[in-house]
Design brief:
By secondary structure, the chain is mainly alpha-helical. It is built from three helices and three strands; from the N terminus they run αββααβ. It has helices at 6-36, 59-67, 69-79; strands at 46-49, 52-55, 87-88.
């Protein structure tokens, strides 16, 4: 007797898509931040927990982000469809 595992593959495909989307979201957020700042941030310095983005870095760097926060959030909103980011901390 042979079992059909097709339903399990369909179920797991949903999780593959979620993890792929998180990686893409992080890249989009990183590009939007770096485009608006004088200095560059690394992917390891960003933590995304929708609707928030948390930045690890120096106070000087965080101040620059806060000054340009609205522009960064607008860029993120324009480049993402399903995820809503409302604040950068």
């Amino acid at each position: 007797m042979e079992m059909d595992y097709g339903h399990i593959n369909i179920f797991l495909e949903k999780f593959r898509k979620i993890f792929k989307d998180k990686g893409e979201l992080k890249k989009i957020v990183l590009e939007c931040i770096n485009k608006n700042l004088n200095s560059q941030i690394n992917e390891s310095e960003i933590i995304i927990k929708p609707p928030f983005v948390k930045i690890k870095g120096s106070p000087l760097f965080k101040n620059e982000i806060l000054i340009k926060k609205e522009k960064i959030l607008n860029d993120i909103k324009e480049n993402t469809i399903d995820v809503i980011i409302t604040d950068i901390r």
